[in-house]
Amino acid sequence: MKHLIDPTDLTKGEIDDIIALAEDIIAKPECYHDCLRYNKLATLFYEPSTRTRLSFTSAMMELGGNVLGFSDAKNSSVAKGETVADTVRVVENFADIIAMRHNLEGAPFIASTVAGVPIINAGDGSHAHPTQTLTDLLTIKRELGHIDNITIGFCGDLKFGRTVHSLIKALSRYEGVKVVLIAPDELRLPDYIKHDVCEKMNVDYREVKTIESVISELDVLYMTRVQKERFLEEEEFDRVKDSFVLDCEKLASAKKNMAILHPLPRVNEIKPEVDADPRAAYFRQVGNGKYVRMALIYSLLKWKNDPSHVMPEHPDFFEDGELQCHNSKCICNHEPAPRLFRHTPGGHIRCAYCDSFIK
Ligand code: CP
Question: Residue 59 falls within a domain, yes or no?
């Protein structure tokens, strides 16, 4: 069975098939209106969401299925101390597929180790957000006509921005993609993405300090919000919160067909004056999220009993009771979980749940 916990759980071919299916749904929605009648999606959201939860809900409804779940774990038995693993063992009795968002990194991964139905990671802490990645890829394809051979600038909070981590992982498998990282020192991309993804996959990447110094080169500018909820110190957040603000003046030297993406919500990193620019694709991006989630739910349920669509092997995962993950936001430090780790291409050891450096 196939789950979607990390973008690399899908082969590039599977991602391209999901994007092609989403485009077919956009072209011929009437062909898909009833194809998941009597199927049920559970949305288990332990953390706030507007786009992801509602687009999952809308997607399942458009496919003719039904939706159940919670949008506030405080109103579920989680408040009585039920673990993620037990919650999933319960909910799989009521639903054919589960989408989970959690503030703790690795929570959907734990769910996938015990679940008898497909689990979709709808965002886990600062770690990963693979369905936003599918949304972003479909948006790039629809805005530019192709995903290969683009130069994409990621701007803002590249440390905590899970959408950035997942999109770079996915783009590393496309041809000729160049990545420019635009962030203050405090919010630079985590080393594991630079070393284990960009360097391993030979992605051409560089780090710069200003939008102005690179905007004329970009085919895509991917803006992000500084994630206040991930900071341990409020003063640190205050220092970096207004690091980058996109306005019409900065856009003057950008390509005429550059696409401006943002996973949203925005706070003040894109001025409202930019919304009227035809290159502002972020609200079209939201709409694409529904179609790509329709394609994903449809595909995972179709693949559920197909032995050719299984999770990729992780030969580098190993269990070691002596090693300890020190990330306080990792699920492995909050509920019983096998002590799983992986070796990196550079010879280090990282936590299998949250990718934190171990040694
Ligand atoms: N892009 C995104 O994940 O938005 P929500 O937090 O509103 O779901």
Answer: no
Round to whole Å and give the CA distance between 342 and 325. 12
As a whole number of angstroms, the distance between CA 174 and CA 171 comes to 5
Residue 239 scores a pLDDT above 70? no
Ligand 1 pocket test, candidate residues 132, 133, 270, 285, most atoms within 8 A of CB: 132
Same domain for 343 and 207, yes or no, is: no
Please tell me if the CB atom of residue 250 comes closer than 6 angstroms to any atom of ligand 1. Answer: no
Q: Which residues of 77-88 are buried (b: 16+ CB within 10 A; e: fewer)?
A: ebeeeebbbebb
CB of 161 closer than 6 angstroms to any ligand 1 atom? no
* Distance in Å, CA 265 to ligand 1 centroid: 7
344 part of a folded domain: yes
Q: Are residues 321 and 282 in the same domain?
A: no
The model scores a pTM over 0.90 = yes
- On whether both 272 and 141 belong to a single domain, the answer is yes
Q: Are residues 143 and 232 in the same domain?
A: yes
pLDDT in tens, 255-283: 999 999 999 999 989 999 999 999 999 99
Q: Is 202 left (phi over 0), alpha (psi -120 to 50) or beta?
A: left
For ligand 1, pick from 45, 47, 49, 131 the residue to mutate: most ligand atoms within 8 Å of CB. 49
pLDDT at 232: 67
Domain count, the chain: 2
Residues 106-150 have pLDDT tens digits of: 999 999 999 999 999 999 999 999 999 999 999 999 999 999 999
Q: Give residue 339's domain range.
A: 317-351
